[in-house]
Amino acid sequence: MTAIITIANQKGGVGKTTTAINLSAAIAHRGKRTLLIDLDPQANSTIAFFESGEISASMFDVLSETRTPMANIIKPTKDPNLFVGPGRLALAKLEQVLAGQFDAPYRLKDALAPVVKDFDYIVLDTPPSLGILTVNALVSSTHLVVPIQAAYFAIEGTDDLLETYERIRARPNPGLKVLGVVITLFDKRTNISRDTHGQIRTVFGEVLFKTKISKNVRLEESPAYKETILTFAPKSPGAVEYKKLAAEVIQRVEESRVARHAEDAA
Questions:
Q1: pTM for the full model?
Q2: Which domains occur in the chain, in start order?
């Protein structure tokens, strides 16, 4: 069964897209066929791999009334196991386009159905909001990963995300699980980061991933060279940490599959 993981946090600047890009790459480097889908109108996950002129159709075409087949827009990357469903600024119009459409929350789930078996992992990069794009992601997903910045007020706003998560679980997607919370932009030299880490650990407990993603200049530089951190600076702390995070993600996904099989058998 394909693991479909939404990366979501309605707060901006928490390393969400950086996590989506480099977690996808790290999973792909472990031999898993991985599809990164860019649902953010800023399209930074797309820009990290392609020039704008290389994109002829995007997730907007898939989710809007055009209904372009998902297979038609998927693009390969330099990594033979990593593929991208590109985004564009036009995604910002989707809220208006889908207003009043009875199937609006299910557009992505329906679009993924023909291609989902082609991949081991699908990672969804979402915008910093809880609008129709994030709802589509959660309705389509098996798991949710929440990046939280190591800064004061970091947990502020996660209540709204978790409330949306519970609403999605209550009706359209009861199988959705929180896979974990990952601390990003961590600076072990500062009291703020250390204090925030303790606070987040108190709130989320075992859901918190052991791996923390450090604040790292190389992570910020790599998209400008159309590379992930794994190829741009493979020995950097960012590369090492995202490899560790990928290992944790894969382990938790496997554990959740075993638990689900046990529940089904019972």
A1: 0.95
A2: 3-265 (3.40.50.300)
